[in-house]
């Protein structure tokens, strides 16, 4: 396999073994306890919110649950399709709910009519709606899901940092923990094998440092290594301008102003210096808090 120009990867080509397991199969295996816990809650009639960072395996978990419950439940698994109506149509088709009127000249149902039809069908029982990437769903659909909860609707919401309001506040929640280093290593080896690659052990350990416990990143870094993309070219991290030196300089300046005010007996100058000091300290705290909230995936 040809290396991209400028690549420093330590790769060689291997024949892909027939018994190789793909990354999704491994994620299901490693998330088995989580899957069992979610299914146990749903079988008790308890809707649930599953939290996890992007790439943690929420979608794979949702598909596996839909597969396992498909023989006993009518399951609809949907992501937001760009408009509320298109999302409702996808849900209706999965549940076998009509999307047109039943008169002689059928017309497409409106979004409001679809909401009513799906709600009535969900109230029949043995129905499950799995909302993938639920944090992206608009407020109108989230309010509608609250209405489903007030009936017999059974919901499984999969989300990454959802807003602290509406349906997200009303559901019990569980959070997917990062995978262990051994599990991540297994996924990376499987992905490398699937690509016909052999990675130098030292390089492999270096790649794993970029992944943390995130299975999607584990697969991605293998592809980046194949393409000769180093960490410095990856866009997973974010860069910030450190404003600390400017704030320190500002604090020093206002401190000098306060001392001048004291020396000259100028109360107005002293008060202005005090207010400016408090303002600078508040800005410093805000900048620090904002930078802490923006972290790399997998960490």
Automatic annotation (TrEMBL):
The chain crosses the membrane at residues 243-262, 268-287. Keywords: Membrane, Transmembrane, Transmembrane helix. Gene3D superfamilies: P-loop containing nucleotide triphosphate hydrolases. The keyword Mitochondrion does not apply. It comes from the Bacteria. Residues 46-166 form the ORC1/DEAH AAA+ ATPase domain. One of its GO terms (molecular function) is ATP hydrolysis activity. It holds the Pfam family AAA_22. The keyword Membrane applies. This is 9-O-acetyl-N-acetylneuraminate esterase. It comes from Shackletoniella antarctica. The lineage of its organism: Bacteria, Bacillati, Cyanobacteriota, Cyanophyceae, Oculatellales.
